[in-house]
Predict the 3D structure of the following.
Amino acid sequence: MTATADLAGLQERDLAARLLDAIPRRVNGDAHLVWRGRTLKARCLVQIGATQFLLDIDGGRIRECRAGLPLLCSWDFAIRGSAQGWASLWQDPPPPGWHDLFALSKRGEMSFEGNLLPFMSHLQYFKDVLTLPRKAGA
Amino acid sequence: MARASFEPIVGRYIHAPVLGEDCRIYFEEAGQGIPLVCLHTAGADSRQFRHLLCDEAVTRHYRVIAFDLPWHGKSYPPAGWEKTEYRLTTQCYVETVRAFCAALDLVRPVVMGCSIGGRIVLQLAHAHGAEFRALIGLEAADHQQPWYDTAWLHRGDVHGGEVCAALVSGLIAPQSPTQYRHETLWQYMQGGPGVFKGDLYFYRVDADLRGKLDGIDTARCPLYLLTGEYDFSCTPEDTVRTAGAIAGARVTVMKELGHFPMSENPAQFRRYILPVLDEIRQKRD
């Protein structure tokens, strides 16, 4: 494995740890955010580089947030981004042009696939959830 | 405890014929001096200029006037709207601006528009430059690449206001104050059904101005283009490319601002707009 690949692997592991730490804890600990997702029930595949996560949301609460997909797992929609895309999005402040899910998709660093209705009907909820790792701590 | 106080803004309605239809147009104004007509972004309204309207450094020298396009804010759609799908066209937009200025008897006003307002400013510079003392395009370009399907903006199973606001939320710079970020988004949440989408028909379909901006005389009517660095819809590169084809056009890339500079972060925006307004004022008309 090259040094560059090593570095990329480290970056992906770091981003994965930030996602797994921040999202379930900070969504379920935020009563208003949960309320905003009260009519939402969705299974969302989130991908950072080559690493996949399953985000299972029910009534705005994160029921499950795990790395890797269970066998024969179905999901509603996928949000796939490059490691550089997620790393930039989670900088505080993020650099211009790397600061929003759609900024990333416009530049080819992120894609949205599948049944996008639950995503688009709760778009600000998802934007807010997926940027929670930007700020560490509380 | 905060004390009660009036702002200097005064709101009124004016009737103006636009392409043969009577339009009842709401506008707000403050200040005196050179008329400065302000054009809001797609799917929003004149509240975006509330800070500029209250800025004494501006209103000492300018009569700042911001109006709601028909279908927006407090300006109703023309009668019969219920049987039509709203689609803003270049011709309708140009004639609305000109009709509003004529109705108020404004003599060679400065026009400043943002986003779709910035696009129409380019068309005004091209086709009617002699009517204006100067033109200012905020987040303006002759064309920009689409970044979502506008069909999502108006459908029965998605709340239009919420999805419009959520889409444009990413166009606000992360440094913008929380209060003004959410005021800006509230404007989008309050838009009528299909209105943002209808404005984007102008933006994306009808007004591709690439290669059509010849003949702009910036000596007679100076053209200023200012774009926020966080605007990924109309990027600084889009504005620079546009200005490259217009001799004398002046470009400023604004730090820590996005697509709604006057609304999302007024303190930051005034650092950029006050020198432009001073320069316009000091030029002999």
